[in-house]
Amino acid sequence: MAAAILSAAILSAAPAARAADAAPTPAQCQLPRGDAALSAPLPLLSRRIAAGEPIRIVAIGSSSTAGAGASGPDRTYPARLAHHLRDRFGMADIAVLNRGINGETDDQTEKRIDADALAARPDLVIWQVGANTVLRDGDQGLSERSVRQGVERLRAAGIDVVLMDLQYAPRMVEKAGVAPMLARIADIAADERVGLFHRFAVMRSLVDSRRMAVTDLIGPDGVHQNDGGYDCVASMLAVGIEDAVRVHNSGLAR
């Protein structure tokens, strides 16, 4: 039953992924490549890409993974990431499974790591963390413990992991918990030796450099990304993944 459901999910994602290929990334969505750096290798993903094998990625988290604010499933960041990775690696067989659930906090997501991440046998899990805890002035200690536990289970299974931190958005930046949460997420990534996509810093740099306005990235609710924001984040994340893979594989070649 589980295998049938997973197979159906992958097949149903294919038309959306093909439709997403038609949406171009704004030319303004450009930063130095180092801004997208994940600061950790992705050994499993790198080996499978080098071998030309099918790639399966699970994107897990809350509403900005599920795609709140997007005009359709093909405009969420996981759908756009699949497009950008296929383009960068010249591989058709890259699936990014969207396992986001609106409104979740990290402790809730951690409870479904086995069913919604490990069961899919992914090469990489991208876990978007921290946002709802900050927006609700929640328990950051609980969030940190939950993310550490989930990351440790994923790592024990031999899966590559990338954490994605907060979105840079009007309702987010007014919260006092932003800086402490960003620091906690960075500490987890460093301690557990997993990748970290600095979404908050990337989006802020795009705005501060005047390449993009907040309204190019964030929808009218002041918290969720719009189509342009999701696509831009996915594009920059694809750069970070590409560089992590290239550094790993070039190191093996020496």
Task: Explain what the structure shows.
Helices cover 54% and strands 11% of the residues. By secondary structure, the chain is an alpha/beta fold. Helix 1 (2-20) packs across helix 4 (77-89), helix 2 (43-50) packs across helix 13 (227-253) and helix 8 runs parallel beside helix 10. The chain has a 5-stranded parallel beta sheet, with helices on both faces. The chain has helices at residues 2-20, 43-50, 63-66, 77-89, 106-111, 113-116, 131-135, 140-156, 170-173, 178-192, 199-208, 214-217, 227-253; strands spanning 55-61, 94-100, 124-128, 160-164, 195-197. The chain contains 13 helices and 5 strands. It is globular and about 45 Å long.
Low-confidence stretches: 1-20
Radius of gyration, taken over Cα atoms and rounded to an integer in Å: 17 Å
> Percent range for helical residues?
40-55%
Strand pairing plus helix content: what structural class? alpha/beta
Beta strand %: 5-15%
Measured distance between first and last alpha carbons: 45 Å
Number of strands: 5
Write down the overall geometry: globular
Strand order, biggest sheet?
A: 2-1-3-4-5
Query: Count of helical segments?
Result: 13
Largest sheet: 5 strands, parallel
* pLDDT averaged over residues: 90
Spell out the helices and strands N to C.
Answer: HHEHHEHHEHHEHHEHHH
